[in-house]
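Entry 14: structure prediction run for GTPase Der. Input pasted below.
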Amino acid sequence: MSNIVAIVGRPNVGKSTLFNRLLERREAIVDSTAGVTRDRHYGKSDWNGVEFTVIDTGGYEVNTEDIFQEEITKQVQLAIDEATSIIFMLSVDEGLTDTDQEIFEMLRRSGKKVYIVVNKVDSATLEVAATEFYSLGIEKYYTMSSATGSGTGELLDDVVADF
Ligand code: GDP
Ligand code: MG
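Run finished. Output tokens:
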């Protein structure tokens, strides 16, 4: 049985940046032609020798502010149906939004293993700002800068340990 990890969250939080980072090493080995897999939403990755499938969500529409709530909800539901683990990505630069709250409610009701990740934490100052997300009523979140890759190791250690 293969483990499937889905990355969900509202537009622009950095889901695809993390997805591409997770696939990077593997793609470099598998694909001899650069750039051919840019628009993929499924990919294989591994951490500490443990393989898993990654699903990127939300990439079908243009990244504009007027994405329909309905479309986000649909994609989160698909991820819940398909994935064994879910990475719920938030962004420290915009803080906690109504859409974030709605996605979180869906995930909580799903009973799936959910990893809450606050992205765009590019500096120590932003680690402090990230504490805002405790207002979700959670005990733990991961911070990350998917742009630089910092924080991804801590998250993946836990994700693969829980498979
Ligand atoms: P998605 O819509 O959730 O897939 O988000 P993208 O991965 O397309 O990223 C949206 C924007 O946020 C892009 O301009 C990224 O370069 C930027 N971004 C992603 N991760 C980070 C990060 O860790 N720090 C900062 N400062 N920007 C980021
Ligand atoms: Mg995307």
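Notes: The first strand starts at residue 4 and ends at 8. Will compare against the previous run tomorrow.
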